Amino acid sequence: MGDMEEESGDVGMSNNVNDQSWIPKAIKKRVCTTFVEASFSNGRMCQCGATRDTHQAVALGDYFSTAIVSHWDSIQHSSAYPTDAFGELEFEGASRRHSKFLRLSCDTPPSIAYKLLTADWGLPLPNLVVSVVGGEGRAKVKMWVREVLRQGLVKASQSTGAWILTEGLREGVGRCVGEAVRDHAAAASSVSHNKVVALGIAPWGLVKNREQLVNPQGSFPAKYYVHNTSRDSCSLDINYQAFLLVDDGTVGRRGGEAGFRAQLEDYISKQRTGIWGSGSIDIPVLCMLISGEKNMLKRLDLSLKQSMPWMVLAGSGGVADLVSNILESLSSSPPVPSSADGEGEMGPTVDLKDRVAERVRKHFPSETEMDKLVEQVLSIYQNKDLITVYHGEQEGPDDFDTVLLKALVQASKQRVSSNSSPYTEELKLAVAWNRVDIAKSELFNADIQWKYEDLEDSMTDALINDKPQFVRLFTENGLNILDYMTYGRLESLYCSVTDSSLAYSLLQRRLGERQGIVGSQVRLQNVTLSKGLDGSQGVPWLANKISLFEVSRVLEDIMGDVCQPFYHSPLELENITSQRKALKLASRFLQGDCQYRKTRCLFPWASLFIWAVLQNRSNMAVFFWEMTGESVLSALSACKILRELSRLESEAEAKLAMKELAQRFENLAHDVFSKCYQSSESRSFTLLIRKSPMWGGTTCLEMGIAADARLFFSHDGVQSLLSQIWWGDMKRNTAVWKLLLTFFCPVLMYTQLISFRKLEEQQEDQGRSNDIVQGRDNDSLYGETIFSFPDMKHIVHDAQGFNSPRYPLKGTRNTLPKRPFILSRWRQFWFAPVTSFLGNVLMYFMFLLLFAYVLLVDFKPPPPLGPAFTEYMLYFWIFTIVCEECRKTFLLGTMTLRQRMRKYIQDVWNKCDLIAITLFVIGLICRMFQWSYESGRAMLCVDYMVFTLRLIHIFAIHKQLGPKIIIVGKMMKDIFFFLFFLGVWLMAYGVANQALLYSYDPRPSWIFRRVFYRPYLHIYGQVPVEEIDVGKEWDTNCTDNLTLIEEGMEPCRSEHNNWLVVILLVIYLLVTNILLVNLLIAMFSYTFSKVQGQSDTYWKFQRYNLIVEYHSRPSLAPPFIILSHVHLFIKRYIRKVPSIKILHFVLEVDGKAANKLMTWEAIQKESFLIDQSKIQRGSDSERLKRMSVKVDNVLKHMAETRDHDRRLRALESELEYCSSALSWIVETLSQSNMAKPSRPPPTPKEPFSSCSSI
């Protein structure tokens, strides 16, 4: 059987015949091969239930067999054969999904059956298994039992994700369970995670019409038809998801499946809950006894000896009433002593045995083996702690799930160690069932003091199995996340990622790379590793486990260059930029003792947040986002991760879920920042450019641009910051004509033409900058964030000299020496990004004019006659542009060369610049030689078009032109689709037209013109009718001589089938001019209407890149920018002065300033969450939920009131009976002569009479 288990373990989850071909090899059926005569059949029937004719002839040759063998045994008298009934089951006339079924031997190992159910058939792993026992046959089920099954059992199973095991036949309790499952499935939401799985385990020989299921190759599906489904029968029930048909060789007999069912229940009870068995407890299994015959006592006794908990439904009849009566009536009796006890204790044992025998005799008066039943009942009574009696008729089915929980907890207390908390098992069950309401009401009601050790395992279970409500509950009730979250536990969480997720495949890919490095190191060093995964030589076990290095590599692939790598500090990989070197060092480091796994995680909530986002767990990720700091940046980071994952995801449903969650986090970032902006404008500006140590040194602006967060960038606060950076020290309402006038006449900047910030404001802002650096604890700590050049230089200067003695003592203010007014105003004007932008625009127009003049007027022949002086000016101009592109690529920022190159290439307009420069260099080289002069001139003409198109990017900053440019860019995509359809028609019509008009024309150039160019001109109305229609005169000289045609003469038109040419022309014009052109117009209209509403958002998003570009540019424009380049070269590489503009849009806030800023942001986030909860509570859905809860409470109180009224009426009837009895006694005694009363009988008092009259 071990081989069979291994074979079944490799089976996938497909449902076709090929994937389930292993089933007949591993799973058998049983066929009776020995005839054992039944005493009542006169030799015609075997004790297995089949006739003599169905048995093999070999088994009938022994005439002494019937005398020797008197009792038929399944194992001895039947043989195993490959099963011939398995696959899918389709009920005729029923419009529902197929059920699974399998015929298997009664001695099949339960592990094979369980793997088949979960791995191959795809049934969800259970959090609870309820095995409904009893109630078989066609006996009528009581109405209140039906209600318990429908409103109690199935409802509780749905809330816990349970399996319900019955016989699965359309009779008795099995039919009631099936109908209850059907009703709840119809009423449940389609997106509900917990589905009730009804599993039928029935004897094969009892199933009606079982021959319809037989197919040795498997049935996919098998047609199963049932007659008269309104009556009870032994046919399979349509409402069950799967059937295990246990074959013990009998026909028409019950009980053959009991042994296998008990083994399966015992096997399931030893498996772990959760994903991959990651839960903190074994799967709880509860047997529920309803009614039952006397043979059920043996099943109950054996199961209790295996510590299986039972729930007995009192009042349902049969064995259930017997057990409940004995347990309740004998609960005060002493326990049954063992046989080794003294004789002095035999008295109570005999008394207890007599009382049990009396009750057994009362329930089974005609039983012959009474002593055997009594011993079974006494054995059951010894394990009474595992039995819960449920009075369903009195208690009702409302709180049945709580009853199940308490029954399992009561049974589990017998197995719990004395050191653990008595409530721990109950908590683990509540977590396994995801019933946070039970945990809140029963366990976390301030009556129990929870310790960290009690919550640790349950916390891990809740994290792995995606139960955020329990995670929230644990963190609010004593679990310290700092103690819980270590790097080792974080690695274990990543190891528990499901294999069906995208994150698992990404982690495994990186793990494979490290395993390859480790394997190569082992081979090179010739080291024998004794702790391989399977105990043999090979890669160590730790090398096969996902570590933080794989997580770091995956995050680096997803986040790109927007932030520094994660988790490099615990892995001792700081300042390692080479991925290959980092891989080797990490592989060597992870083969050591790895002490970092015991240390606390630096940012526990952020680490859990990333872990949840990578798995696309929305509710868990949102909760961790609420708990982590830097909420705006965290939400943008999640948006970036999810959108990158959605591009890698292949499944459409998962891709859509990732996009929706990414949009949700972008909305959260937008809303929280809006709250911050309403609170304080200056602090919100600091929030946008603050460098975050939690997220690898990135900022909100950098992460937002990487995450494509258009909605976030469209916020007024972000745009206000960008406008402030754009205008520098000038006021934002300055007219453009004033800037242009000052640009050509710089003297005007010293007049009142342009408004600048006052000197007092600048000094005040500089003082606030000092406060930021020094970390003073005052309200101006966040001050106005200044982004002009002198203020930025001031902040950097203060940061560099923080520990120098130049800083004054506390209570004094440090002031920098003032620059002269002329120099200060000069820098304020020329260092503003808007000035740099205007200068570049004006000079770029002059560059285009110079380029056009050279091409049209002054383009001289090759040397020595040319080039002209103006062309040399153009060459120098292009050279300065190339120098600026090199500076922008290689000399800006702190990233590595590879990261800079990748970032440069990713920009579309940078690609346009590369194309323009490359074309110019090629054209310049070609025009210097006589043989390629014309080609070079043509190349330069094309290059001029590319340089001119660059103006589109320049004017993208304009508030009116920018959105229109976005719309044009979106429409360009529509043109490509239009050109595809047009190209199909062009080729179809052009080739057919050319072949019909000209029988032979070998000239390729003319073929291309007539196949593509001429049909394209037809769209615009240029139709040469005289050339197409042979009825028109054509004044062109032509010939039909093939020799002359090959020499280049025009061939004559073919007059054959010319009518077809005219028809094709009409059809072509109809399709292109009317259909395709109008289709293009409709596509443009749709794109315009769709993008028009969001074009402003797109423009605001793209505006950021343009502002960053001109903020980092030198003040002078090409060709004078070469002076700035020389100045920068001297300053950086000769004087060694660090760059100031390298810190654009980045502000480092440390110490108290950082703590206060994070506290302020957290307060704004809490305020936002409170507002959201108020809105949610005020919604109609929440009001309906609260109203529903109130109505349920009222109905519950009304039910209790009715119960109290019933009890009062019963008490009143008892009082009336007692009163009547006492009256009769008094009357009898008064008429008797036995005793003479000394006083008359008492008369009824008024209160008593009033009570009796009620």
UniProtKB/TrEMBL annotation:
Membrane-crossing residue ranges in chain numbering: 735-756, 829-854, 874-893, 914-931, 976-1000, 1059-1081
All residue ranges annotated as the TRPM SLOG domain in the record: 100-332
Domain Ion transport: 844-1094
Keyword match Membrane: yes
Phylogenetic lineage: Eukaryota, Metazoa, Chordata, Craniata, Vertebrata
GO CC aspect terms: plasma membrane
Keywords attached to this entry: Ion channel, Ion transport, Membrane, Transmembrane, Transmembrane helix, Transport
Main location: membrane
Listed name of the protein: Transient receptor potential cation channel subfamily M member 4-like
Region described as Disordered: 1233-1254
Membrane topology note: Multi-pass membrane protein
Source organism superkingdom: Eukaryota
GO molecular function list: calcium-activated cation channel activity; ligand-gated calcium channel activity
A family per Pfam: LSDAT_euk
Species annotation: Esox lucius
Cellular localisation: Membrane
TRPM-like domain segment(s): 442-715
